[in-house]
Amino acid sequence: MSKKLFIGSLPYSTTEDALRDHFAQAGNVESAVIINDKMTGRSKGFGFVEYSTEDEAKKAMEMFDGKDFDGRALVVNEAKPMRERPQSSEDGFQL
After folding, report:
1. Which residues contact 63 (CB under 8 A, 6 or more apart)?
2. What stretches of 3-90 show up as alpha helix (H) in DSSP?
3. Global pTM?
């Protein structure tokens, strides 16, 4: 069963390939995604890495949480399910 990790405090210049390559040190990375701002297209400084097994994900948390990555101390922990957000209209007001 695959396991998804939240990766925070990423340098804004990090690419998905660089994220995948770095985290592959802990095991088989199934996916690596950096979240971008919808308006600007720039990185929000966090992303997600998914491993094939829970053991690989645990190893990655031990190896990388709090460790330096291009000058920033990474935050690595288990990803939580996304909460449902209230819908809003085009002008930004909640419906």
Report:
1. 25, 26
2. 16-23, 54-64
3. 0.86
Helix then strand then coil, in percent of the chain rounded to 5, is 25, 35, 40
Helix count and strand count (H, E) for the chain: 2, 6
What is the identity of the amino acid at 55? D
31-89 pLDDT, tens digit each = 999 999 999 999 999 999 999 999 999 999 999 999 999 999 999 999 998 887 676 66
The rounded distance, in Å, linking the Cα atoms of 49 and 16 is 10
Domains (range + CATH), the chain: 3-69 (3.30.70.330)
Average pLDDT across the chain, whole number: 92
pLDDT value, residue 67: 98
| Helices 16-23, 54-64: crossing angle, 10 deg rounding | 100
